[in-house]
TrEMBL record:
Residues annotated as domain Bromo: 90-160, 226-296
Skewed-composition ranges (Basic and acidic residues): 38-47
GO molecular function: chromatin binding
SMART domains reported in the protein's UniProt record: BROMO
Region entry Disordered, spans: 13-47, 181-207
Phylogenetic placement of the source organism: Eukaryota, Fungi, Dikarya, Basidiomycota, Agaricomycotina
UniProt name for this protein: Bromodomain-containing protein
Organism annotation: Rickenella mellea
Cellular component terms per the entry's GO annotation: RSC-type complex
Keywords associated with the record: Bromodomain, Chromatin regulator, Nucleus, Repeat, Transcription, Transcription regulation
InterPro entries with a match to the protein in the record: Bromodomain (IPR001487), Bromodomain-like_sf (IPR036427), Rsc/polybromo (IPR037382)
Compositional bias (Acidic residues): 184-196
Gene Ontology biological process terms from the UniProt entry: chromatin remodeling; transcription elongation by RNA polymerase II
Localization (cell): Nucleus
Main location as per UniProt: nucleus
């Protein structure tokens, strides 16, 4: 496997290949086969969809609930074919470096760094053997595959970008299967009619998932008077190797990146669930760190100045409506 040039952006991607029935989602972690001769130790990479990525997909309104393993295989193979057939605007196939695992002889360090290697051909074999009980399990392996590639290769290298784009495509396709009729709006009053059989015109609010993401991004962007970003230390969990005491002390570790991922996977059924996890990030920091230490102080600032004014709406009976108003107010600041 050769090094590849830097440069083709995800926005240049067009999907050419078998069209799938409805599909879409994210999760998990996976092992990727895409390898370049250089590696990036922190190539974590968030998956952000760009509007000019075109995904081929058909329409099947089966929401994915109650699927048999045979159903998962059928839908999964369709997603797999779309991922394999993805090309950019220059008609370059993006999946080539991810089909098979790299040579252990040529890339021994890959197998030292990557704990769970997995390639696209492995995923196809697992589909054939009915090893995936759900599409979520399949999605987890796609994520591991492409996250492995991003972890090993230099950030923003061509192979890193291809991995990011293909991960995004797999996620979107599985999501379309699992949530084919997802409403893009939130009903504020929650009522279907006005009591006389006439359907009441409902107020429509922006999607709750987008609001939670926007609110969390605003929290992350908070800086102190010197321009230092307060959230940096809370973005990722501490190393288990360096901080074993943390994992003995803290019963439920969680970081801001975890919350972003859960928002993306639509795991929060209510705003209250989301707020509780943001609160837990800071509660853990306050519990583990000495009073008035720098991290303790940052946790207090973010929790009190940013989060609590927002979370105070949680006791209100119309939580979603208040959440929206909070979002509008803070966005204007």
């Amino acid at each position: 496997m050769l090094k590849r040039e830097l440069g083709v952006a995800a926005s240049d991607v067009v999907l050419d290949g078998p069209r799938a029935k409805r599909s879409r989602n994210v999760s998990g972690e996976s092992g990727g086969s895409g390898v370049s001769a250089v590696k990036d130790k922190d190539g974590d990479g968030d998956v952000e969809m760009k509007d000019d990525v075109v995904v081929g997909g058909g329409g099947d309104d089966n929401g994915g609930s109650g699927m048999t393993k045979e159903d998962v295989r059928e839908k999964g193979v369709e997603v797999w074919q779309i991922v394999k057939g993805a090309v950019n605007k220059e008609n370059r196939t993006l999946s080539t470096d991810f089909l098979r695992l790299p040579s252990k002889r040529q890339y021994p360090d890959y197998y030292t760094l990557i704990k769970r290697p997995i390639a696209l051909e492995d995923i196809h074999a697992n589909l054939d053997k009915l090893k995936y009980p759900t599409l979520e399990a399949l999605r987890a392996d796609f994520e591991v595959c492409f996250k492995n590639a991003k972890k090993y290769n230099v950030r923003e290298s061509q192979i890193w970008r291809d991995a990011k784009t293909l991960q995004k495509i797999a996620t979107k396709e599985i999501d379309k299967i699992l949530h084919p009729n997802e409403d893009e709006h939130v009903d504020v009053d929650g009522s279907d009619d006005d009591g006389d059989g006439t359907s009441k015109k409902k107020k429509k609010l922006p999607n709750m998932t987008r609001l939670m993401k926007s609110r969390l991004q605003k929290l992350v962007g908070r800086k102190d008077d010197d321009g230092r970003q307060l959230s940096n230390v809370f973005m990722d969990l501490p190393s288990k190797k360096k901080w074993p005491l943390y994992y003995k002390t803290i019963k439920r570790p969680i970081c801001i990146e975890d919350i972003f991922k859960r928002i993306k996977r639509k795991e929060y059924e209510t705003v209250a669930d989301f707020m509780a996890e943001v609160e837990l990030v800071f509660a853990n920091a306050l519990q583990f760190n000495d009073d008035h230490s720098p991290i303790w102080e940052d946790a207090v600032l973010l929790r009190v100045r940013t989060f609590l004014p927002f979370s105070s709406h949680s006791s209100h009976p119309h939580l979603i409506s208040n959440f929206y108003q909070s979002h509008r107010t803070t966005s204007a600041n």
